[in-house]
Design a protein that fits this description.
The chain is mostly helical and about 220 residues long. It has a single domain, classed as Orthogonal Bundle (MetI-like fold), CATH 1.10.3720.10. The protein is about 75% helix and about 0% strand. The protein is built from eleven helices and no strands.
Length: about 220
């Protein structure tokens, strides 16, 4: 059996999760600890992928990232290559779709940090961003872990958004979920079974890790 789709899924999940956390953690910190006007509007926008059909989100991303799109045209002018139907394109699409899965655990973890710790940090001369790195992040390791695990798992099983933005290019954008769909269409059930079982095993390990983090967080509290 060709394991390339599974490898691509894991590569996509790892890269998109790492970049996503680098963006989601500061964004969440800003929303939780800053007096942002219209905060609920921003949070609703972040959570929109939770309720939108993946094909709808994928369609809008395809337009925005296309050759004439808001991001697609500058990218092509800068790099000389298209953004859609590439691995880079599906990384961006996966991040957009998985953002709420990282944001919600981070928000919950950040809100649990004792505000007195932050006030003490400010009194000692820490800036807001220094407090983020020295106080908030060290006290929200479990939340960061849960956000990373959920974003990783969600990306591993993503289908609709990836198919819309990346298509099914072998070795480039043909991830495991797309390969399973194509195997079933071609009546190649053995390959579909094997890939599906691999994703089931990965999903189970991910849920096990989340439950262990939640238990550890409950004991620490």
């Amino acid at each position: 059996m060709d394991l390339t789709p599974l490898y691509l899924s894991a590569k996509l999940a790892l890269i998109s999760t790492f970049i996503l956390l680098s963006i989601a953690a500061p964004l969440t910190y800003w929303l939780v600890y800053s007096p942002v006007r219209g905060k609920y509007l921003i949070e609703s926008l972040i959570g929109l992928p939770l309720v939108l059909p993946p094909t709808v989100l994928g369609f809008f991303l395809l337009i925005v990232m296309g050759p004439e799109g808001l991001f697609g045209r500058p990218w092509e002018n800068l790099t000389g290559s298209a953004l859609v139907f590439t691995f880079t394109g599906i990384v961006i699409a996966a991040m957009a779709h998985s953002l709420p899965y990282a944001f919600q655990p981070l928000k919950t973890a950040f809100e649990r940090v004792d505000r007195r710790l932050l006030e003490s940090a400010y009194v000692l001369g820490c800036s807001k961003w220094a407090a983020f790195f020295r106080v908030v992040l060290p006290n929200t390791i479990n939340g960061l872990g849960a956000a990373a695990i959920l974003a990783f798992a969600h990306t591993m099983g993503e289908f609709g958004v990836i198919l819309m933005v990346g298509g099914s290019i072998p070795g480039e954008t043909r991830v495991a979920s797309i390969a399973i769909y194509e195997y079933v269409e071609a009546l190649r059930y053995r390959e579909a079974w094997l890939l599906s079982l691999a994703l089931v095993a990965i999903s189970y390990l991910v849920l096990l890790a989340v439950n262990l983090l939640n238990r550890k967080g409950a004991h620490d509290a």
